[in-house]
Specification:
This protein has one domain: Rossmann fold (3-Layer(aba) Sandwich), CATH 3.40.50. It contains 11 helices and 6 strands. The protein has helices at residues 34-37, 59-67, 85-93, 116-119, 133-141, 147-158, 162-174, 178-182, 201-210, 225-228, 230-244, and strands at residues 18-23, 44-48, 76-81, 99-105, 188-193, 214-219. The chain has a 6-stranded parallel beta sheet, with helices on both faces. Helix 9 links the parallel strand 5 (188-193) and strand 6. Helix 2 crosses helix 3 (85-93).
């Protein structure tokens, strides 16, 4: 896939090349980043981290997997989407000077739905198929309709075993990276979907309260913000990159 043809390049004509490390949502495939990647100019070098589709790895194990792929000798930005927010936070808390900034999209530092910690066993173990996709679309896209994104979502989640998806949901219920969040010295940009029905506004508020340097931008988008509002998200990411580089 070729990147760098979008007019968004104008935002970074004076900015040197920088790597953007992207940590995916709960499916872990990274396939859902495609709409965003198409909007990024050649100044931004995407490095998509992908998680195993059949191995049940804890947040800690996934963090170490991602750490092994983070650039060692060039400046980079770290983007954590949804499920991967805690991973991005953990990595950023111990990163070296090559890290220039952190972007968090529709995500959290700790379990955003605390009541699920007690009643998680009651969460249905639904297989992802043609019957359950309308429910998943409603949860992740709300009133926004995009058949291409819906098809990409189905393709992505269908590649991951139901056991792995359930295990990752259990991990969300017990994660807490608020202390690591306090230790991040780099600027943070939080992208919030105004119609995110999955991650509540309180999750963003927690991050804004605990982080040393954080700004939040609310976008007219659902939980799949980087997909539905890819062009606007890319614009804010480019401006952030220009500011911190």
């Amino acid at each position: 896939m070729a990147y760098g043809t979008n007019s968004s390049q104008n935002f970074m004509t004076n900015t040197e090349s920088i790597t953007l490390v992207l940590l995916p949502g709960m499916d872990g495939t990274g396939k859902l980043f495609d709409p965003l990647l198409r909007q990024l100019p050649s100044h931004i070098k995407p490095e998509v981290i992908r998680y195993p589709t059949t191995d049940k790895l804890s947040y800690q194990a996934l963090t170490e997997l991602a750490r092994e792929q983070v650039p060692r000798k060039q400046p980079y930005l770290l983007l954590g989407e949804s499920f991967s927010g805690p991973i991005a936070i953990s990595l950023a808390a111990s990163a070296d000077t090559q890290l220039k900034g952190v972007i968090l999209s529709c995500t959290f530092a700790r379990n955003p739905r605390q009541f699920l910690s007690k009643f998680g066993v009651l969460v249905p173990r639904l297989p992802i198929n043609a019957w359950s996709m309308p429910l998943l679309n409603q949860l992740l896209m709300g009133s926004f309709k995009d058949s291409d994104i819906s098809n990409q979502l189905f393709e992505a989640v269908s590649q991951v075993s139901p056991e792995v998806m359930r295990y990752r949901l259990d991990e969300v219920m017990h994660v807490d990276e608020t202390q690591a969040l306090k230790n991040i010295s780099k600027p943070i940009l939080y992208l919030q979907g105004k119609e995110d029905y999955l991650v509540p506004a309180s999750a963003a508020l927690t991050i804004m309260q605990l982080a040393k340097q954080a700004e939040m931008i609310a976008i007219d988008a659902p939980h799949l913000l980087l997909q539905v509002a890819a062009k606007e998200a890319a614009r804010h990411i480019l401006q952030f990159a220009q500011k911190v580089s």
